[in-house]
Structure prediction request, 891 residues.
Amino acid sequence: MYDVVIIGAGATGSATARELSRFKGKFLVLEAEADVCSGTTKANSAIVHAGYDAVPGSKKAKYNVDGSEMMEALSKELDFPYSRIGSLVVCRKDQDRSELERLLEQGKKNGVRDLRIIERDEIVEMEPNIADDIECALYAPTAAIVCPFGMNIAFAENAADNGVEFAFNSRVTSIEKVGDHFSIKTDTDTYETRAVVNAAGVYADVLHNMVSEKKLHITARKGEYELFDKSAGNHVRHTIFQLPSKLGKGILVSPTVHGNLLVGPTATDIDDKEGTNTTADGLSQVEKMSALSVKNIPYRSVITSFAGLRAHEDGGDFIIGECDDCKGFFDAAGIESPGLSSAPAIGKDLGQMVAAWLGLDENPLFNGTRKGILDPKKLSFEERNELIKKNPAYGQIICRCESVTAGEIIDAITRTLGAKTLDGIKRRTRAGMGRCQAGFCTPRQMDLLEKYAHLTPEGVTKSGGDSVLVYGKTK
Amino acid sequence: MENYDLVIVGGGPAGLAAAISARKDGVQSILVLERDDRLGGILNQCIHNGFGLHTFNEELTGPEYAGRFISQLLDEKIEYRLNTMVMDISHDRVVTAMNSHDGLFQIQAKAVVLAMGCRERSRGALNIPGYRPAGIYTAGCAQRLVNMEGEMPGKKVVILGSGDIGLIMARRMTLEGAKVEVVAELMPYSGGLKRNIVQCLDDFGIPLKLSHTVVNIEGKKRVEAVTIAEVGPDRKPIPGTEERYECDTLLLSCGLLPENELSKECGVELSRVTNGPVVNDALETNVPGVFACGNVLHVHDLVDFVSMEAKNAGHYAAAFIQNGEQSELTIDVICDGKVRYTVPQMIRPEAMEDTLTVRFRVANVYKNASVVVKAGGRELIRRKKQIMAPGEMEQVVLKKADLASADKVEIGIEEA
Prediction:
């Protein structure tokens, strides 16, 4: 019997698992996919929002501001990439600048620090590539960018190191309340648990509705993005948002923590909860709409495009906490933007809520720090040579575009909750995430997976399941 | 810091030929740095024949062709380091590199030859809509899997792009028992050599659909189907022309991009057209003592031409090492647009050799048109060609005597 089963190993589920590992108990995370960070968390804007967007008093407002305040310290404790670069919401000459003032007031009410409205001269100084008809902007210095993979993986690894179990390829097919506990079935197993945390992203409604009469309804809202080569990474220095209008929240243009440029997202409601395909219309919309805020975006430097799904609940706010008509079942549902920013705060709150409900004692062995995968690029010439002498794998480059060594990939495969797929390696080390998009290093990464994850060539996959790379030997 | 007279970045066909040529010109201290675990570069995975017709008057496979140069290199006792990645080349020719054995190390070179080759345009750079499952490979990646790893990357294949590697892989996959459904090409003409279309597609009954592109990729885990559509003159898909092919693999052969990230960091000026360095007739870049050759300079169709070009780069690098930097008058080679680019882009009319081969590509298919070269107010060359296409590199030979008083060389195409 588990004390808590958490469903979903995205940012919210993993943050909750890590918080729970501060307590004594038996905890399990069930993940439908082959790895952590495989749903909503893997494809979004990678932004830590300052917190002026959400309606004062809403859960979105509370968790966003709290999460944003926690993020910097967490990034050091758990060793994931984070950078407080600030954001601008830009307003064109033909738009209503009172809308900016409204956002400013809303931000103040939500407790966002240091917000101010700036005029064109200052904007141009900060962002030379700003579009010509931008007149003023709301500047939020506390806004930041983060590596969503890095954060999610760090939470999960730290939770696992503190004793939380993880089961992958475990899609939940039913949840039943049996007496004072729950029985959770996947395709292959049944788990008994005293409490459940539902952090299942776009599927959170399906799970919630298995146990509650108060139905939720989540719509998958698709966002398409284009990611640029690092040569375009300096095109803007802050995250540039457009003023929300009748056409929606608009397209953002932002540097990423790794020095690329990211442009997107669109917003299209779809029926398919797995519909992460990009579309010709979506990508052309990204290109057209981005020009409204930033000029001369070098579209010939795009290295990839992708689509993510936001879990939009009909009520429009996050649903956090115990289900009214099913005691012991805790929701983290409707986690759309600013979900990534909020994940640390939601995880903390929810973890403590569940622990209190179960009356769990503190775990005296809890260790909240985690060391990420060593990045030799951050070492000095001499330190790097020392490292290679100790472990020659750090002298062998596997991914040329991102300069990722065999040493880093082996670390990614062999550490806690290690990578078992090409995507898993990519999200942990950036191998294959550069301009050639793994054209050169795929066979080399396959070799390392075979050797260190003990797979056959036909057993190596891109993202688990049927995503095999080869079908067997040549004639 | 170590010292070498000549450091060659890349041990593929260009680097090998440059090294051998510099040694023949008397350079003793040469080091070739190769990132792979063997010399020969991409030739090692090109196990088909057709290499060496111009250089050796016989048809060799890629590894055989590379082998000829590798044995010369070994005979000449030229130093090389494998599994070695060059991390940086400074403007004053300090080369920083790394491998497991030597760690991170630096070399001061008197001259550097850039011979890093090129990479393939990826699905992401093409921005093809759809899912992102396994089973989407660049043709070269699939070629490595089949020919070097002995693994089959697919059973039912659609190929986008009719570049030479794609055509070769259509045949290779067919011979290995896969079914190649179709080759789609965005342009109204093929990007590959005519002989490859005949030998790799026509002979196997594989259809080539010109003016077609991929508009959707299905399959959440592995490719399940690909939709292609016809494109109009604006290269945009024409609604209603979509055809869906069930398949498990999409191979991409949509162009090669010279890999010049190191060159850029070194301050080498790059051409917007070739994506390679701008060079003079000595194949020297704007950075003194830094030379370029092979596919890092511009993408070639035939390795024989890479070897010839690299031989020149080695020769001129040797001259630089022996004579130091010379200040010389240069003039530009101007293209008319129908000629997309030339290599070299600049000529030293006083220092050049008696003859100079200028290679170029045309922007479109031209039938019964003439290549016209003018300099100093005179027409130097007018040569009629039955057909010229972007997929086949062209060349003209200029004479030093003709350029004595010229302030530029103009090269263009005149249609009948």
About this structure: Chain B has nine helices and 27 strands. Chain B has a mean pLDDT of 96.
